[in-house]
Specification:
173 residues; alpha/beta; Rossmann fold; seven-stranded mixed β-sheet; globular
C-alpha cells in the first residue's frame, strides 16, 4: 500500500513534543489522513478520533490502527456541530486541513471545533502561509489567529522550516 506524498509515515515532531509528559486523554485529528499521528497518540495511551473527507484515507487509517480502540469517520469538518463524536476532547490536531478549506467554510469549522474542545485544552494547527514567492496558498498568520480569537488563545507559534508555514498552539478559553 503506497503512502500519499504528504504522509511521511512518522508523527509530527511538534505533536510529540507537545504531548510529552502530559497525561493521555481524548484526542481528535481533523483531516487525519492515513492516521499516522493518531497511531502515535494511541500508542501513548490516548483515546483517538479521526475525521477525513477522503474515504480512502479512512480505509488506510483503519488498517493502520486495527489493533487500537478508535473512532474513524468519513466526515466534513465544516459540520462538526452536526456530527456525533465521542468527545469532548483534551487535544485537537489539524495538520493541513483548515488551510485547504475555502474561506467561506473556515468559520463553520472553527465554530464546530469550539463545541468539542474542552476549556483549558490544546488545539494544534499546522497551516501554509502565503509568501513573497508568488505562493498564494495558505492563510496569513494574523488572519488565522483572528479566526480563533473568540474561543481560544494563542500560547505558542513556530514558523515552519521547509516552506512558508507555521504551527499554532491554541488553548481553549
Amino acid at each position: 500500500m503506497s503512502r500519499p506524498c504528504w504522509d511521511k509515515g512518522v508523527p509530527a515532531p511538534e505533536l510529540i513534543r507537545h504531548i510529552s509528559g502530559k497525561s493521555p486523554g481524548n484526542a481528535i485529528d481533523l483531516g487525519c489522513g492515513t492516521g499516522t499521528n493518531l497511531l502515535y497518540l494511541a500508542k501513548n495511551g490516548w483515546r483517538i478520533t479521526g475525521l477525513d473527507y477522503a474515504p480512502l484515507a479512512i480505509v488506510k487509517a483503519k488498517r493502520k490502527l486495527k489493533n487500537f480502540q478508535k473512532t474513524l469517520l468519513i466526515a466534513d469538518v465544516t459540520k462538526l456541530d452536526e456530527i456525533e463524536l465521542p468527545g469532548p476532547y483534551d487535544l485537537g490536531l489539524d495538520i493541513g486541513c483548515l488551510h485547504s478549506l475555502p474561506e467561506s467554510s473556515r468559520l463553520p469549522y472553527i465554530k464546530g471545533l469550539g463545541k468539542w474542545i474542552l476549556p483549558g485544552s490544546s488545539f494544534l494547527i499546522y497551516a501554509f502561509q502565503p509568501d513573497d514567492k508568488n505562493n498564494k496558498k495558505g492563510i496569513p498568520k494574523a488572519e488565522l489567529i483572528s479566526y480563533f480569537m473568540d474561543g481560544f488563545e494563542l500560547v505558542n507559534y513556530e514558523q515552519g522550516q521547509k516552506r512558508s508555514s507555521a504551527w499554532y498552539y491554541f488553548r481553549k478559553k
